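Table S2 (continued). Query chain:
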Amino acid sequence: QVQLVESGGGLVEAGGSLSLSCAPSGRIFRTYSMGWFRQAPGKRREFVAAIKWSDSSTFYANSVKGRFTISRDITKNTVYLQMNNLKAEDSANYFCAADDDFTHPWYPDREGRYDYWGQGTQVTVSS
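Corresponding output:
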């Protein structure tokens, strides 16, 4: 059983910063990519950012490009999301996801490509 555990959410004022992290526990797996998604109340879950483990290639949603940075620590099998210049519309429950399937091309923004999901961590930005 693989579990992804997110941490780092909280309450911040607009224009502020937060950093999220996510690490797996339980069964060891080889990481192909990891990503972050978010879901605000009453809205569908949406893609935020993703990183390919082998070469650190990254991909971002247009709404966060230039403000958020995804990174990874291979030694810790941990993914991070640095969020700067936060806006009220960034408020959501942020989910970490991991993909361990090396047999398909990288589709970072497709939920269905991810095999494991965390429980989410709440980010609230006050305006």
